[in-house]
């Protein structure tokens, strides 16, 4: 667990801070400026709560029931009922990092002073994060409009001391027990607080920020894998020259091509066929066009990062408190469309990068296309199958990723008696993107595994210093070199973890410096 707390105030949470809290368990505290903003907004809510004029979410029902005026003595029950009824998720538990991420982002909005919660309510959420208390949130329940209602309601339920949570050790227990064990007291929600705790796009945004971080690392690793494939298949590095990329000035393409050039530098394998005797005119698209595909993916990720940055700087709630004007106004900022679109876009590029990776891998296995390597890179073809079925595994994953690339954000099912008649399905887009990121990790890992075997089979030709470092990493992790068939699944899983952890990328960067 990170020792220094992340301070949440009136400014946006950074992606780095979100990752520290969500993935590394960093504690959280409210910054001094948050207390002042929260108090000012709360004063506005309490004034409206005592007024005779109805105010949505404060003295009325919700959604299609907003026309009912709720008397003062029933408003605490109104907030409890809202949270309990909306904590209606179903299915498997959502990952701990996702729940911690959405809690941090909801806290960030609470701290802006636009929601009207009390300071003690915001403070309890910060304390739960610091103590590692994670509410149980279920897979299904959010339509990505009016925010991630059901997931956030499960978190709000835990603040009330109800529902289930997992403590810092991962033990499942009632929320009341976990809070008591940490010395924390549940809150009794006051006017507007229940609504403020559940009306945000925090779940889908948190998953977007994490996916962007993962994809940035994976796309650099995909450049490494592509370079290993170009090298192992006796391809040329000339097509990656900077002057050729400048003719089509997409920034991601130039960065990817530069990475390929650097990774292939000083390769004995590439040098062996660089002379005038080489009769290869052009490499296949999956080799030659790697920068165009990887680069287009990079540019898409950076577009998504711009959207995420705007969303991180937002205060998403409805109604929203305008403390400086002393009023509360309804709005539509909870609609998840901007986030949902880029979540879907990233699933598309993840699928395509996986697709070209699988095609590069397949070329290693076909004796008609692998330029002198044994069929399927097998030790004794016919007796041994080599990496034949590793490519099947890649193909199965890529096929699923293509299905996952079908956008969720084009769908909408009306809800709340047609009051909420158009929704974003952004939560669903985020959930499938997480599966796509995992799939890309696995596909790239199998390419790295296969290319490393091919480079060993090219000896005594020496790979580049960078690709040679990857081969050594695999061997040091227990993945043996070429030889008779052996149980392949554990080797694939080891390679997957080396890619997922960033170890493959680190091995390269320790030799040639940081990749772009």
Q: How would you explain this protein's 3D organization?
A:
The chain is elongated. The protein has 20 helices and 9 strands. The chain folds into 2 domains: 6-200, Fumarase C, Chain B, domain 1; 207-275 and 282-313 and 343-512, Fumarase C, Chain A, domain 2, CATH 1.20.200.10. The strands form 4 sheets. It has a 3-stranded antiparallel sheet with strand order 4-6-7. The chain has a two-stranded parallel ribbon with strand order 1-2. The chain has 516 residues and is mostly helical. Pathway: Amino-acid degradation; L-histidine degradation into L-glutamate; N-formimidoyl-L-glutamate from L-histidine: step 1/3. InterPro entries: Aromatic_Lyase, Fumarase/histidase_N, HutH, L-Aspartase-like, Phe/His_NH3-lyase_AS. This is Histidine ammonia-lyase. Its main location: cytoplasm.
What is the secondary structure topology, with strand pairs?
Layout: E1 6-8, H1 15-24, E2 28-30, H2 32-50, H3 75-86, E3 90-93, H4 96-110, H5 119-130, E4 134-135, E5 138-140, H6 149-159, E6 164-166, E7 172-174, H7 175-181, H8 193-198, H9 202-232, H10 242-246, H11 251-264, H12 268-271, H13 285-288, H14 290-312, E8 320-322, E9 327-329, H15 337-365, H16 388-404, H17 426-457, H18 465-476, H19 489-500, H20 503-512
Parallel strand pairs: 1-2
Antiparallel strand pairs: 3-5, 4-6, 6-7, 8-9
What labels describe this entry?
516 residues; mainly alpha; Fumarase C, Chain B, domain 1; Fumarase C, Chain A, domain 2; 3-stranded antiparallel sheet; two-stranded parallel ribbon; 20 helices; elongated
């Amino acid at each position: 667990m990170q020792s220094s707390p992340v301070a949440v105030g009136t400014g946006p949470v950074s992606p780095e801070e979100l990752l520290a809290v969500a993935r590394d368990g960093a504690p959280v505290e409210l910054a001094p400026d948050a207390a002042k903003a929260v108090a000012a907004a709360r004063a506005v809510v309490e004034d409206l709560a005592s007024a005779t004029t109805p105010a949505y979410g404060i003295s009325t029902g919700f959604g299609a029931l907003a026309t009912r005026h709720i008397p003062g003595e029933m408003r605490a029950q109104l907030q409890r009922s809202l949270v309990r009824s909306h904590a209606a998720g179903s299915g498997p538990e959502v990952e701990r990092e996702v729940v911690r991420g959405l809690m941090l982002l909801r806290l960030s909005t609470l701290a802006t002073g636009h929601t009207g919660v009390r300071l003690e309510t915001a403070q309890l959420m910060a304390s739960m994060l610091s103590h590692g208390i994670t509410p149980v949130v279920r897979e299904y329940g959010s339509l990505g409009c009016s925010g991630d209602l059901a997931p956030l309601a499960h978190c709000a339920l835990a603040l009330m001391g109800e529902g289930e949570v997992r403590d810092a050790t991962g033990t499942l227990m009632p929320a009341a027990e976990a809070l008591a064990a940490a010395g924390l007291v549940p809150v009794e929600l006051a006017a507007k607080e229940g609504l403020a705790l559940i009306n945000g796009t925090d779940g889908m945004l948190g998953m977007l920020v994490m996916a962007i971080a993962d994809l940035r690392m994976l796309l650099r690793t995909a450049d490494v894998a592509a370079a290993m494939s170009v090298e192992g298949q006796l391809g040329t590095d000339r097509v990656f020259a900077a002057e050729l990329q400048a003719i089509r000035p997409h920034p991601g393409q130039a960065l990817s091509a530069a990475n390929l050039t650097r990774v292939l530098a000083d390769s004995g394998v590439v040098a062996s066929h660089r002379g005038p005797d080489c009769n290869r005119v052009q490499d296949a698209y999956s080799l030659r066009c790697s920068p165009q595909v990887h680069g287009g993916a990079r540019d898409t990720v950076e577009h998504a990062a711009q959207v995420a940055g705007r969303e991180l700087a937002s205060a998403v709630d409805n109604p929203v408190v305008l403390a400086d004007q002393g009023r509360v106004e309804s709005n539509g900022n909870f609609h998840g469309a901007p986030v949902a679109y880029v979540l879907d876009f990233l699933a598309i590029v993840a699928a395509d990068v996986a697709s070209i990776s699988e095609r590069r891998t397949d070329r290693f296995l076909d004796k008609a296309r692998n330029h002198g390597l044994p069929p399927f890179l097998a030790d004794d073809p016919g007796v041994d199958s080599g990496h034949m079925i590793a490519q099947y595994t890649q193909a199965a994953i890529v096929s699923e990723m293509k299905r996952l690339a079908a956008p969720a954000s084009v769908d909408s099912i009306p809800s709340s008696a047609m009051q909420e008649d158009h929704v974003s399905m952004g939560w669903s887009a985020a959930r499938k993107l997480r599966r796509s990121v995992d799939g890309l990790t696995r596909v790239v890992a199998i390419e790295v595994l296969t290319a490393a075997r091919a480079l060993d089979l090219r000896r005594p030709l020496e790979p580049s210093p960078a690709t040679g470092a990857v081969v050594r990493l695999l061997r040091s992790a227990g993945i043996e070199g070429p030889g008779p068939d052996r149980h392949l699944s554990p080797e694939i899983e080891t390679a997957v973890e080396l890619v997922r952890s960033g170890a493959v990328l680190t091995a390269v960067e320790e030799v040639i410096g940081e990749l772009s």
